[in-house]
Amino acid sequence: MPKIAAIDTGSNAIRLIIANVDENAKVEQLETIRVPVRLGQDVFANHEFSESTIESVVDAFVQFRRIIDDFGVSQVKAVATSAMRESLNKQIVIDRIHRAANIQLEVIIGEEEARLVSLAIASAMQLNDNKVVMVDIGGGSVEITLTNGNNIVSTNSYQL
């Protein structure tokens, strides 16, 4: 059974989830770690990350790399949301993470963030043919998604 890792780099914390995924796409979580790093605090006030925040982010990714290697993970997906989207020096952070931890961080748009949240909710709940409104309130943005069963009808992202 392949092991995968997902890293969510948000405005207030960086989260790592490691899981097994079977041939039926059933997910079994093996490890969940949250490192509080207040990326939004710098960006929303100064439009860029301070050196100390960059160091904290890189340290978290180095820690995650060790854990990922210990678990024998075959696939890693790392995404960043609102704070990273708005940062003027995000490329410096992305490059330093890649050099230090060999993890490629992808900055996703708000609509992709909403899509991923809705997929996670749909996989955890039986939506059937119900119409559902999902609201994800983050540190720097709000994503609203309307679904009909497992199908996304509409999604929007709003900066706070």
Helix/sheet category: alpha/beta
Shape: flat
Distance between the termini: 40 Å
Total discrete domains: 2
CATH structural fold name of the largest domain: Nucleotidyltransferase, domain 5
Order of strands across the biggest sheet? 3-2-1-4-5
Order of helices and strands: EEEHHEHHEHEEE
Fraction in beta strands: 35-45%
Count of β-strands: 8
Task: Work out the radius of gyration.
Answer: 16 Å
Protein model, in words:
This protein has 160 residues and is an alpha/beta fold. It folds into two domains: 105 residues, ATPase, nucleotide binding domain (Nucleotidyltransferase, domain 5, 2-Layer Sandwich), CATH 3.30.420.40; 50 residues. It is 38% helix and 36% strand. A hairpin with a 2-residue loop joins strand 7 and strand 8. The radius of gyration is 16 Å and the shape is flat.
